[in-house]
Amino acid sequence: MPTFHPSAAPAPSTAPAFRGRIGAAERSGYPPVPHRYRLHLTPSCTNGLRIAVTHSLLDLARTLPATRLPAVPDTPDGTGYLALRPLYQASAHRYRGPLAAPLLSDDWTGRIVSTRTPDILDDLTRHFAHRGPDDLRGRGGAGPLRAVEWLCEQDINAAAQQAGRADTGPDTREAALRTLLNGLQAAEHHLAEREFWMDDRLTLADVQLWATLVQLDTVHRWHLDAAAVHRLAGHPRLWAYARRLAAHPAFGAHLDLDGIALRHHAHCRGREAAGAAMPIVDWAAAAARQPSATPAPAPEPVANGG
To answer: Within 13 A of 11's CA, how many CA atoms are on the CB side?
Structure first.
């Protein structure tokens, strides 16, 4: 397995407002009790898509229900969801921040447990997996998962955003495109002789890489020129891997292409480029090739906000 060595630590981000954790110890405040917690998410968001796929892979529809939010945030400032206001107000006195999703809430108290996606995924796999926490975490520990997180967030996602920015110089965009292509080539090489990223089965690494590739082709591609998209497409093993996972019921069932498009066009102010007309993967066709199996239960629809 390749090791990705970042040349510098990522810039610190604003800490999320809620970082509670589900723990086995009763004193944690959030013991892993079935039917107590609830997810609030939209698959049109990359983090929401990761959580939705993981939720289905763990078969948690009855143990830990999920409420599906609209594709596009509906607060006046466009940063969150009105339906989440009671949770935020119950969780923090005079809360004035964004009503953001995804999040994990506690139905017993009506409060938010966490808004941090990596912690939510970790708690789902550690405390609610039916066959043991290593099923989706893999046998290599946290190191390989952190490496994939860096690859996806920095070498692919951040680099693609920079490569598509019209307000930067051509040298900056070309350097970002080189970073992006190097990241894709590393993934291509890694998948040359294996079906999954880690071990011999699906793990959280596959979930994150797949959601990142969906974002790259359905969102970032819109701001790249045709030549750049042609270079991105030149990684046949990687995109075949993405199509194969899209055909898995736990992945394809949550692929909301219309929602992704609505969300992107509602918020994006960037300039559309020629690459917008050159999709790399026919995601709808890939998802339609799901084997005959019972599909993952759909999340519950969101209640009207107040």
So the answer is: 3
Asked if 264 and 219 count as a contact pair (C-beta separation under 8 A), the reply is yes
Helix (H, G, I), strand (E, B) or coil at 298: coil
Q: For residues 42 and 259, is the Cβ–Cβ distance under 8 A?
A: yes
Contacts of 151 (CB under 8 A, 6+ apart): 4, 183, 186, 187, 209
Q: Using an 8 Å Cβ cutoff, are 182 and 155 in contact?
A: yes
Quick one: CA dihedral 85, 74, 120, 125, positive or negative? positive
What is the pLDDT at residue 27?
67
Full 3-state SS string of 124-182? HHHHCCCCCCHHHHCCCCHHHHHHHHHHHHHHHHHHHHHHCCCCCCHHHHHHHHHHHHH
Spatial strand order in the sheet of 37-41:
111-114, 103-106, 37-41, 66-68, 300-301
Question: Is residue 11 exposed (0-12), middle (13-18) or buried (19+ Cβ within 10 Å)?
Answer: exposed
The pTM score is: 0.88
Count of residues in the chain: 306
Residues whose CB falls within 8 Å of the CB of residue 213, separated by 6 or more in sequence, listed in order: 156, 238, 239, 242, 281
Q: Is the dihedral of CA 153, 245, 239, 44 positive or negative?
A: negative
Please, which residues have CB within 8 angstroms of residue 75's CB and are 6 or more apart in sequence? 81, 82, 98, 99
> What integer pLDDT is reported at residue 12 of this predicted model?
38
SS3 state at 256: coil
- Residue 71 has a pLDDT of 97
Cα distance between residue 253 and residue 261, in whole Å: 17
CA distance 192 to 238: 9
Query: Which residues, other chains included, contact 84 with Cβ-Cβ below 8 Å and sequence gap of 6+?
Result: 40, 69, 99, 100, 101, 103, 305
Q: Which residues pair with 105 in a beta bridge?
A: 38, 112
Report pLDDT digits (tens) over 235-257. Answer: 999 999 999 999 999 999 999 99
